[in-house]
Amino acid sequence: MLLVNYVNKNILVLITFYTIVIANDHVDNNPECDAEEQEVEECGRRMVLIGRQRMPQTVDELNKFCSNYKKEEKCLRNHSVKCLSPSAHQTVTILINSVVSQNQRICSKNWRTKKLIISGAKCLNKLNAKQTNCLQQFIDRVQGIHQLSQNAKMPVICCNYHKYRKCATNQVTTDDHMCDAMTTKTIESLIDGYSGDVINYVCDLFKSYDQKCDTMANMNAVGGGAANATVEEIPKSFFSLMVKLYLS
Fold first, then answer.
1. Which among 97, 108, 159, 235 is placed 20 to 30 Å from 245, CA to CA?
2. Torsion from C-alpha of 87, 234, 198, 217, nearest 10 degrees
3. Rounded to the nearest 5 degrees, what angle is found at the Cα of 62, between the Cα atoms of 165 and 75?
4. How far apart are CA 112 and CA 134, in angstroms?
5. How far is it, in rounded angstroms, from Cα 4 to Cα 7?
């Protein structure tokens, strides 16, 4: 069991991380919840600017995103209340709060923040296929995570999280003149902000593991992988991936 002291808006929340059993995450026998799954997936995708969403390249596009994300937030919160177990709802709420906080920073009156998003958008949109591939590799590498022991989950999650960050930022720094150091910082900020303090706090230790992570991030090396995989829904967006990891 890994206990994380997570501070959000001056409220101390004690989270038991990696101890929620996946079978108990959802409310059983609720057809309405099942019918909402696809729309909820889309709400999560639209609420996050990285992964599979085109970045806003103009002021108008950014303002439109800022006007719409609260609708997506409501969609996610309503589904969580109605369709998740109390413990899963509490955990997913922490993730939603992190995503909202990130969007509030993007949509604040601070013009410098908005300018960084807009100026980096042409680069990131040009690299969208490569960025999406980095995310897909992350998704593939943690597929089957729920079958691992609690002690084995953390290195697999954290090493692959840092591999994803490195992949996403390397794509930025190796491209043409449209991308610069500030674009790299922008993508790092977006990944960190949308992942939330829990993931970043827990996984901070693994930043320096380097070669050790090459083995520790391998599902087959820790007893997982396709050969031992159980049926597990595959995330289709950055947000649903984070839900999977938070509930693992």
1. 108
2. 130
3. 80
4. 28
5. 9
Return the DSSP state at 179. -
Question: What's the pTM?
Answer: 0.83
DSSP run (H or E) holding 155? helix 150-173
CA angle 86, 19, 136 (to 5 degrees): 95
The residue assigned the tokens 């959000």 is 8
Spatial separation of the C-alpha atoms in residues 14 and 60, rounded to whole Å: 40
User: How far apart are the C-alpha atoms of 243 and 248, rounded to whole Å?
Assistant: 8
Contact 237, 45 (CB under 8 A): yes
Written as one string, the DSSP assignment of 89-112 is HHHHHHHHHHHHHHHHHHTSS-HH
Q: Residue holding tokens 């003149």? A: 177
SS3 assignment, position 231: coil
Q: What is the pLDDT of residues 184-237, one digit of tens each?
A: 889 999 999 999 988 999 898 887 666 677 766 666 544 455 444 556 788 999
Give residue for tokens 């992988």. 225
Q: How many CB atoms lie within 10 A of CB 222?
A: 18
| Other Cβ atoms closer than 10 A to 176 | 7
Q: For the chain, which residues make up each domain, given as ranges?
A: 25-246
CB atoms within 10 A of CB 155: 22
